[in-house]
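Last lecture ended with a question: if I hand you only a sequence, what can you say about the shape of the protein? Today we answer it with a concrete record. The protein is Short-subunit dehydrogenase. Below, first the input exactly as provided, then the predicted structure, then a couple of comments.
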Amino acid sequence: MSKIEHRIALVTGASSGIGLVTAQALRRDGYHVFGTSRKPMPNTPDGITMLICDVTDDASVQTLVDEVLSRTGQIDLLVNNAGIGLLGGAEESSVTQAKFVFDVNVFGVLRRTNAVLPIMRRQGKGRIINLSSILGLIPAPYNALYSSTKHAIEGYSESLDHEIRTQGIRVVLVEPGVTRTSFEENLTRPDQPLPVYDTIRAYAEKLMREIIEKGDAPESVAAAVVSAANAVSPKRRYTVGKAARQVRFIRRFLPESFVDKNLRKFNRLPA
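The predicted structure:
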């Protein structure tokens, strides 16, 4: 039996993909896991309690946290996984659409974090794991708004960790690379598509599908989350997958001109 039996984990966006696999991995590790989805879902056969949450709504997030607290009296781990993608030229999205992507991917994290921090502070302990992306470290042509949200999560998470570390709470980043999920099937499309981008947008989507087919298994991301949750002294970030670790190294240590050239080559853009 795990040494962390009876600890309570809340995993957002747990209806499928990385969120579901992560919730299952935490359950196997001994956590009592609550997962969230936008629509009603039955509890899973392996013991994950599913609750509804609209991450863009303050009241919905607070209701979720209150429900978990009323059932268990504690929240030890928050995994902020819920998010959406957006593929297209940056100028093809209206400000309204951009605000929505940020509302889900950034302000949703802020809402959920603010809701659990008072609980964790009273407990004198807690851990928050934010799912970022390797695209939070590098430019991402035709994923500019999605990438921007992940850059924001990187800065927010590192800063917050310094603020609350003395309260017994740690904030950790998990940075998946390309992962084999249905992420590309649920991409948001630009609400102001422009003909000048039609060909390259279609090509970028085709490239994404090809890359995802060769990506890391979602179980590798789940394993990183479990490690980050259980570490006595967690690392600041857990970069998942060989390719993602290589990208992180290249971004940190090699000249900007080298990074620029190879990024264009990877995305099959003209030099």
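Comments.
1. Residues 1-5 have pLDDT under 50 and may be disordered.
2. The two ends are 55 Å apart (CA to CA).
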